[in-house]
Write a structure and sequence with these properties.
Blueprint (H helix, E strand, L loop, with lengths): L1 H34 L14 E4 L4 E3 L7 E7 L4 H17 L5 E7 L4 H11 L5 E3 L5 H4 L7 E5 L5 E6 L7 H10 L1
Parallel strand pairs: 3-4, 4-5
Antiparallel strand pairs: 1-2, 1-5, 3-6, 6-7
């Protein structure tokens, strides 16, 4: 009874967990289809949005056509997000004032006051958009943070990057240059 019984119980738990995970995935996909939400897809137009930043300025993604746009979702509670921020700030500083490459970040399920304090503490000054209603998250198919979306000059989503990114690495710099 000892070992085989334990082995069978573990097998049953694994099977139940897999079935539950598959069922959850089907429910999520079904919800997205029934609500008409199409998650952002590489090679297709990036979903448009209009959001305000922490200073009250309005931003509409479609108005930035003609520029390569980096849209980065992040949160102060996300350690991986915190790790990529210095490189994002460095890229922002080198491209600030240029219409060739624009950087927008979107705060994900976080307190704007906490984000403002975090930005001030580290001297970050790139735009932080607030999605108070959470409307862009499903449209971009967010699975967590950080997630970054690279949109070309024509408004086409070229890359979706899950996890942290080094925005100033030679590969990233070359890729952004190829889109500009």
């Amino acid at each position: 009874m000892g070992f085989n019984s334990m082995k069978n119980k573990k097998t049953i738990i694994v099977v139940i967990t897999l079935v539950a995970a598959l069922a959850a995935g089907v429910l999520i996909k079904g919800t997205q289809k029934s609500s008409g939400v199409r998650a952002a897809t590489e090679g297709l137009s990036a979903p448009d949005f209009a959001l305000q930043d922490m200073d009250g300025k309005s931003w509409r993604l479609s108005s930035l056509k003609g520029s390569v746009v980096i849209v980065n979702y992040w949160a102060t509670w996300c350690e991986s997000c915190r790790l990529e921020m210095p490189a994002l700030q460095k890229l922002y500083e080198t491209t600030k004032g240029s219409d060739k490459l624009r950087i927008l970040t979107v705060l994900f399920r976080d307190d704007p006051a906490r984000a403002a304090a975090y930005m001030a503490q580290y001297g970050y000054n790139f735009p932080v958009l607030l999605d108070r209603e959470g409307t862009t998250y499903p449209r971009y198919g967010l699975t967590g943070v950080p997630e970054t979306f690279i949109i070309d000059k024509g408004g086409i989503l070229r890359k979706k990057i899950l996890g942290p990114m080094d925005f100033v690495s030679p590969d990233a710099t070359a890729y952004f240059g190829s889109l500009i």
